Structure formats: structure tokens, C-alpha cells
């Protein structure tokens, strides 16, 4: 990721021990003398201004290389790891504009890595070809200039790219959610753009014509969720997406979906808050918000993928459970996960579910005395599609009887709550998968996280493989499945450490509420940055040694 400040790296802040309820609680603290000790290690630094070197120069590994332009920095850096590349000069000479300096820098990095030019040039053509051949040609020439220069001059470069036997897929989580929605039969998506959820809408919009999806940019989030609910009631699978501030506006609509038992999927991409917070940074602080949002009591499911593969499959599962039980389903991501890119072998399209739970036409006609909210043993009523048969389909945002007409009768109210909540929830719970376990089979230490922490926790466990350590990761967060075996394993473990990108250990609190389990230690980060694998391993090592 290139920016005006150079290569984007994540700094780690040292944790300071704090006692909370008799257990060690580690929080982020950074003092002036801890800065250098808390830096990440960078192998390639692209410094497009002097601040990049000032802020990140000491993060360069002993074998790393930093590229910069003397014309911009205004000084020569006497360090063999720093390579001067005349970005601006080559941009003006080959790209005919300083604006192509980024393209020169990209070429330089790929030249240092020895990556095949054609891979990038194909992407460049897809991106800029529509702007005309002149624009593409100038950027191509700028890229080639940076590529050839770095490949010739970078004598220190010791980087190699591992060859691969089969082509792999490069995909982000927002795109994976979009693909999961497509294979699940989503035909309506409405949203108001909000970082970092906007990528889902953009992806679906790019496939709208091809896949027959209506994608609507609403005037606000209130309209977005209500449009999605209306489309769902009318008979199509629908979805909306937003971030914390936008979801705050959707909350009344969420309760509407619950009362009318209208299935809907909500992608909630978290970012630091309150209010606007840090709109381009990351955090896992909306879990309890999603869990408790909405007035009244009603069931919901919450999924929190930790990778594009999980995002794809869990989006499909969200649609399936939402349709099957006529409830809201959440997919929780965050900025770090939403905007990251992963290399995967493939997406197993054949593994998805797409069962039609709604009824229409002759099947609906055949029901004698159809009632939209009929009391059933499972709590799930037959969901007819309006306008497809002779049956009248009615619902109401007020409490209603089986036919959907408003009522205040106490016995009907009680039975409707039992139907919507107590009959459905046990059945939903049985469909939730167990957490992922990875590492030592009989560990002394288990680290536990949810959502986007999966990758960094796995990396940390691999780094500390000489210790009896394992991880437990929850991607299916609520309702929690019955976990007798998993909870026994946690209770027998000497140290259990909660890893969360929030200040108050929200998942740990949920786990305690649901199971009574209490962690021995907590590691929290809430400065807007994600955990970093090697630095998490270092912090874990400090705790357990």
C-alpha cells in the first residue's frame, strides 16, 4: 500500500500490566523511550517524502531496502540499505507528469522483487485502458523506467518470490462477502456508502447486470435497511451493509425486521468510534452493539469471519439461517479485514447452500386458511410471497395475531414472544459451528479471539511453537454452540489469554455471560491499528515466560 507517507506499517505499543478483578489485564501504553522497541520490522520501505524516513526509517530490517528520491528528500542518506531512485525525474521524462511518480515507485518495487512485468501491466491496462491509450502508455513507460532502474541498481536486493505451481486467487473480504451473497441468491442490496463497508456495494454493483441484482444507493442508512426489508418481504433475498455510525441509524429497522419476521442480512464493518472516530482505521468494538441493538427481545445470528474463505462461506450461512428462521443475520468484519487482500487456492462454490424456504403460487394456494404468523412447534411460520397466489399475506410492526392483524391480547403477546424467541433460538444454536482449534493438542496456554484476529493469532502460535500453546478462534459468535469439550479444555489450561481489538474485551464478556468462563489474562489493542503477528508473539512471550 503506497501513500504520501510511504509504505504503510503498523506500530506496536507496549502493554502495561493492570489488575482487573484479580486477573492480569494488559493495555496499550507507549512512552517516549519505548518507541524503538515497539516498531515493526519492514523489508521494503518506499519513502515518497522525508517524513516516511523519519517515522519508519528505524523499522528497516538489516536485510531490507528503502527507496527514496534525493530530489524530494533534499539529502543523500549514507546507508547501504537506502537506494536513491529519481522518481520525479523519471515520472516527468517517461510519464510526462509528476503524477506518475507512484507508478515509477511501483515499478521499482516489482523490479527489486523480480516479478514478471506482464502481471502488473495487465492490471494497469484494466485500470487505465478505459481512459485512453495515451494515459496507459505514459504509465506503462513510467512503470518500465522504475522497474528497469531498480533491477539494475539494487545490488543489495536479496528478495525472491516463491514460484507457484497453480494460479491462485487474490481476493479481499469485501469481495468474498459479495460473492457469498451472489451464490446465496441475493437479488437486492441497498446501502449508503460508509468506510469500510462500501467495497461490498461496489463489488455487487459491478456484478449487478451479470447476476441480476438490484443495487440501490439509498439517501441514508434508515432508507437502506427499510428498502432491504421491503424487498425481502416482497419475496427476494436482500442485504444491506454499513459501519457503526450507519448501523446506529438502522436499529429501528432491525427491530421491524424482527417483529415482522422478515429475513435480512446485515454486513457490519467495524471501525473505531464513538461518532466518526477513526474512519480509516480498525477496531472490534461493535460486537455487543450488534448483539444488543434493537428495542425488544428477539433472536439474531452473528458471524465474524477471519479470512476471505470464512467470509464467503459465512455469508452463505447467514443467508441460509436468516431465510430458514426468518430472522436478522449479521456478518461482522472490520477495516483491517475488509480492506486486506489474501491469496487463496479457490472458493468451493459447490459447498454453498441455497434452499428455497418461501412458498408461492400453487403451493401457497394449497394452504387452507393461510396465516403469515401461524403458531408452529418450531416457531417458524410458512412464509408466502405476496402477489403470487390467492392468499392474503399481512404483517404489522405492532404486535399481531397469527394472521398479522394488530392485537394487544396478553395471551397472544406471550405466545408470539415464545414463538419468535424461545422456540427458534434453541434450533438456531444447534446450527452454530464449534470454534477453530489450532496448535498443541494438550496446551498449557490457549489464546482466544474472534473475527479478524485469526491470522495474527495463528502466526503467533507458529512463532511460539516451541511452547505448549494453541489458539481457539470463534467465527460463529452468537448464539454460541454447546461447547462442553472446548470449555473443559479451556478450564484445564494453565493460562488462557483473550486477544481483542477493543478496550473492554467484549467477546470475553460475552463468553463469561454465556458460560461463566473467565480468562486469566487479556491483551487488548484499541489505537486504531490491528495486531501484528510477530509483535503479538513477543507480547505473549513476555506474559508466559
List the helices and strands and how they pair.
Layout: E1 2-3, E2 6-7, E3 15-20, E4 23-28, E5 42-46, H1 50-56, E6 60-68, H2 70-73, E7 82-84, H3 87-94, H4 101-113, H5 117-128, H6 133-153, E8 169-172, H7 173-183, E9 186-191, H8 198-211, E10 214-217, H9 221-234, E11 237-242, H10 244-260, E12 264-270, H11 287-292, E13 301-303, H12 308-325, E14 328-334, H13 335-338, E15 341-344, H14 361-365, H15 410-430, E16 436-439, E17 445-450, H16 454-463, E18 469-474, E19 476-478, H17 484-492, E20 495-500, H18 506-515, E21 521-524, H19 533-544
Helix pairs in contact: 3-4, 3-6, 4-6, 5-6, 7-8, 7-12, 9-10, 16-19
In short:
The chain has 545 residues and is α/β, with parallel strands linked by helices.
Number of domains: 4
The main β sheet shows up as: 7 strands, mixed
Side-by-side strand order of the widest sheet: 3-4-21-20-17-18-16
Calculate the mean pLDDT score and round it. 88
Strand content is 15-25%
Within the CATH hierarchy, at the fold level, what is the topology of the largest domain? Rossmann fold
